[in-house]
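Colleagues,

For the teaching module next term, I've prepared a clean inverse folding example: a structure given as tokens, and then the sequence designed for it. I'd like students to try predicting residues themselves before seeing the answer, so please don't circulate the second half yet.
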């Protein structure tokens, strides 16, 4: 089973995901693969790294640049670095995808790898940006994928629910 969280900005998606991963670590000690995306405050750009790796300002990891009040994606970084991370993750116990959004819209190689991971026997856990993003439609429609909306009412209990789903 694959599980993705979605919801409004700053509702607690990443917090719920991180608590889930921490609980899984203490329950079953899985070998996590996958990626995390992060902002570097001083430049407002977005970077990608392997899950668990340090968050550094490295241009080879920059997936988007803030320009003229919008994010300009670096498709080639998704297609090279993102695809490489996900390929290696197929040897892990759980694949983390934090987060999938609109920046990947033209990263066809990366998106193919995302779907390959979702069709594998390895559970994928991540975050889907809440927006009308056409390439997310197959994720929502996948019978092996559960998409959960994070709300103020459910965010505290979600890590327990997700852990239970993944450890059955």
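(Answer key — instructors only)
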């Amino acid at each position: 089973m694959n599980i993705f969280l979605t919801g409004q900005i700053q509702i607690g998606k990443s917090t719920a995901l991180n608590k889930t991963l921490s609980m899984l670590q203490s329950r079953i000690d899985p070998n996590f693969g996958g990626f995390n995306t992060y902002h570097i405050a001083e430049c407002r750009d977005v970077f990608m790294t392997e899950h668990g790796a340090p968050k550094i300002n490295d241009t080879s990891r920059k997936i988007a640049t803030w320009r003229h009040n919008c994010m300009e994606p670096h498709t080639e970084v998704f297609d090279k670095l993102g695809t490489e991370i996900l390929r290696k993750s197929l040897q892990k116990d759980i694949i983390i995808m934090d987060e999938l959004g609109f920046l990947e819209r033209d990263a066809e190689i990366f998106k193919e790898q995302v779907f390959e991971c979702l069709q594998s026997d390895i559970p994928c856990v991540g975050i889907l940006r809440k927006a009308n993003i056409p390439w997310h439609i197959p994720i929502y429609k996948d019978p092996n994928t559960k998409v959960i909306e994070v709300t103020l009412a459910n965010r505290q209990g979600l890590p327990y629910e997700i852990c239970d789903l993944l450890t059955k």
